[in-house]
Amino acid sequence: MNVTSTGPCRSSRKGNKPAPSQRPGMGAMPHDDGTDFRVWAPHAKAVHVTGSFNDWAEPGIPLAKEEGEGIWSVSVPGLKDGEHYKFCLRCGKQTLLKVDPRARMIDPETGNGVIYRDRFDWQDVEWEIPYLHEAVVYELHVGTFCPEKKRGTGTFESVIRRLPYLKDLGINVIELMPPTEFPGETSWGYNPCNPFAVEASYGGPDGLKTLIREAHRHGIAVLLDVVYNHFGPDSLDMWQFDAWSENGMGGIYFYNDWKAETPWGHTRPDYGRHEVRQYLRDNALMWIEEFRADGLRMDAVSYIRRTKGLEHHESVDLPDGWQVLQWINKDLKLHSPRIISVAEDLGCNAALTAWVEDGGAGFDTQWDACFVHPVRAVLENPDDDSRDVGAMVSAIIPQNSEDAFRRVIYSESHDEVANGKQRLVSEIDPGNPASVWARRRALQAAGVVLTSPGVPMLFQGQEFLEDGWFDDQDPLDWEKARRFRGIRLAYRDLIRLRRNLDGFSRGLTGQHVDVFHRDAENKVLAWHRWHEGGPRDSTVVILNLSNREHDFYELTLPAEGEWMVRFNADWTGYSSDFGDADLICVEGREGEIGHPGVVGGLTLPPYALVVMSQD
Q1: Which of 514, 609, 523 is nearest to 567 (CA)?
Q2: Alpha carbon 96 to chain centroid, angstroms
Q3: Pairing of β 34-40 and β 71-77
Q4: In the chain, where the domains are located
Q5: Which of 52, 51, 50, 87 shows the shortest CA–CA distance to 70?
Q6: How confident is the model over 597-613, as pLDDT tens digits?
Q7: CATH T-level topology, domain 506-613
Q8: Rounded distance, CA 50 to CA 56, Å?
Q9: Contact at 8 Å (CB) between 468 and 422?
């Protein structure tokens, strides 16, 4: 385990016995009259704070030990923000120089904590978080989304410049992969070494606040990805913070036995310690209260509630982890009932989205592995005759029948396009991911995501057919946004339908779905989405999963009358080499197709995706 900075502090200076701080809070707390410090170090014999403000005098200004379990604090008059600092801990025969576990800023050159005072101007931007049934989420990685140079690192400022693009696309929620401080220059973000600090290379805390403010100005909510299943594992000053540990493990912030093990190192937080639980809860609330984020997505929740995740036969429940999840989610709702809390558990566990009062974990929604895997498997299959219509149907129908929006549905995410897996177009046609068939089936994936019940999510660049796999050193190729502007337009049109922005597809925001047509032989299926039903509400989606064209394909419809085609993926406006099938409206008439009902017929192009509703 690497420790960023440990080393000797010189002998203490004699002086008056320090008095503890009277201000609430932990870490460095700057105010008009100076800065107060408070730190948890139960095994330290003495704690000092030193830094640029006293020329790194050794050991520095002493902290007083408060009554209770190992809390130390002091008030330092006249000490302003912007100064660098560390804690000097005397622990038996060892003396350690440590970064504050709650440091709000880290200097990228030295690794020192920086005293940060919040003076950010929010400019009174009026804002209201969208409801889940209206949300379309766009997951992005700040470092690769839109950097200044081809091989450079992106920043919050570079994301801000693309907010008009995202707004035009129809996105109203962006989800940032973890923006917390990580070791090195590039990272996915899932190796946080300073969980309370914002990555300096992205723009630090004020940069993140500026992005959130400007996103709100554009009508876009911001979710932050947080990692509470492990820390690090590298560059962790929290590791053996006050020198105590058992079994060579991580000390006070971590389990010190077999429960410490995760796939990312032996750095699972000790959910059974009150101070660690408070640390995680305070971190979650900080993003909501101080940064005005609109919600959190918690990474790998299965490793918070179980020792080895979901499938491992040796995995054991962690009741303390479940209680941490409940506490955080309950406090998020106390802050605002509109805050969005998302779990990445991938176990399709309904208890995660049950309310805390009912024994659930209290999340609003969760990433749905029961959707993404069958959808990708069906569309990646090179053999039309082998496409499993039943698997696609099972993906479209949510397992949680009480609330369709308790799941986030997607065909690409950072996990699905890395670690040996690639973007959907590359999986469909590895030799030519821009081929007509890759484009057609990629649009089908987008259509299934954006018309099925659930909260739809896209991954950065998906809308302009980014190929290959996700790499934190490989920025998006924005030239593809120009090259495939027709595909991007198709995504925009589908998102407009999903959000009912034109007022004739309200059913796509509703709870209800009926997959009323399943033709396993011809690989065609159709489903009906509705809120209350009727014209401009009931919406029908038809999917042809084969390269076979049907000149006149008949199926039952929910109601008589004209069904206007609102989206036809075969339109040449989306790609000049598409077929441009003549699809304007479908007439629903009384007839028989195996049983009495309303019958309609239409031309069905290869790999068709058609969306219809009534005026």
Answers
A1: 609
A2: 36
A3: antiparallel
A4: 506-613
A5: 87
A6: 789 999 999 999 999 99
A7: Immunoglobulin-like (2.60.40)
A8: 5
A9: yes
